[in-house]
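Fold this complex.
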Amino acid sequence: MQDIKNYVDNHKDRFVDELIQLLKIPSISADSRYKKDLLNTAEAVKQSLLDAGCELAEIHETPGHPVVYGEKIIDKDLPTVLVYGHYDVQPPDPLDLWESPPFDPVIKETASHPEGAIFARGACDDKGQMYMHVKALEYMTKNDQLPCNVKFMIEGEEEVGSEHLGWFIEKNKEKLQNDVILISDTGMIAKETPSITTGLRGLSYMEVEVTGPNRDLHSGLYGGAVANPINVLSKMIASLQDENNHITIPGFYDDVKEYSEAEREKMAEAPFDLEDYKKKLNIEEVQGEKGYSTLERASIRPTLDVNGIWGGYTGEGAKTVLPSKAFAKISMRLVSDQDWKKISELFTKHFESLAPKSVKVKVTTHHGGQAYVTPIDTLEYKAANDAYAEAFGKDPIPQHSGGSIPIVALFEKELKSKTILMGFGLDTDAIHSPNEHFGIWNYLKGIETIPLFYKHFTKLKQAEKK
Ligand code: BES
Ligand code: MN
Ligand code: MN
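Structure:
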């Protein structure tokens, strides 16, 4: 029997090579031209599960991109871990800001990753982190160290809102039955500061269209006399936040959970260096909701952001035009106990009410999901805590994240089990940005930590039964 550290050390080059192969397939879920690539990625994931020791692995078609399911059941009386991850990635745009092509992985050193990092779209979010679980399974099965049953559910639509995963779960509740859901699709505070994500924000993603005159007009002949939809849209958007950066949609804060002073003080103990944060982003000052710290603004408070805005002439040179239409994509990050459908309705009603008579507005909802918060006084958290303590030599810090994995709240509701979010990415890994990367140290440390979770979880669960 080899211990996990040795096993990782002996096989690390192959682990990196295999991930690189997976990263070469452009599994961009948002773009229908890549449908075949998503299928190919699903096939590759399925094969990797079989190679790692799953006795069953299958591809489930959905109305969208397929879900890969795999399992190894060793004993019905033992607990079952369900691993969730996603094999789809964000579009790589803007392409010209990549230092190497997004689907042609290269290894380079960075300040945070002196051991090297793999640069490619999806390296950290989430192919690299998902694949840690496949390699952890390989270690456990090849060395007779799998202490419980394991199931995998790897989807291809996370980056576009997991539209069909709810449907898949609903249809396969029996198959997906488990004792804990394990996910690596978040980050950690720092390499020397392991952390477990205990909160995720919800999301409500909207699109608005403002229409003025029935055609583009000459901005000299009509300008000043006919409403310009871009001007109007800008004013409408600007009014959505007041001078304290409070969101002005009536009822928006009604269900926002307020944390006690004691809870806020506890959260503020997490290491955070504001000067370093500003320096890394090359900004002079941060901004945000009055009365809250930067960490709080980016985790336990809701937000409203324009993600894209367009209309009129954006080509080379200058064209004098008063456009007929203007558009924007607007997202709101939500916290418990806000309901994303209710917030989408409140937004729609308010945005429509803001429009002057000179324009028409159309508001549509793209997708959304509920926020997620988990307590830390649970058996599941304790198992994760013990796994990190063993791998890192210190206890992890529980941390609320600002990101969203909308399906997590649904998992708990439908499958009635707790979720553990074991993330190994760093904030500097540039997920969703050009030059996304994943540290090789982080990748290998993840592979090393995961089997320890299985071990501690099974031990605690068996002890509870007695
Ligand atoms: N893995 C991320 C979410 C994440 C990243 C959570 C880092 C915490 C820390 C996930 O793939 C993601 O990008 N989610 C989307 C939401 C989705 C509906 C498009 C997001 O947060 O924007
Ligand atoms: Mn992800
Ligand atoms: Mn993502």
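The chain has a mean pLDDT of 96.
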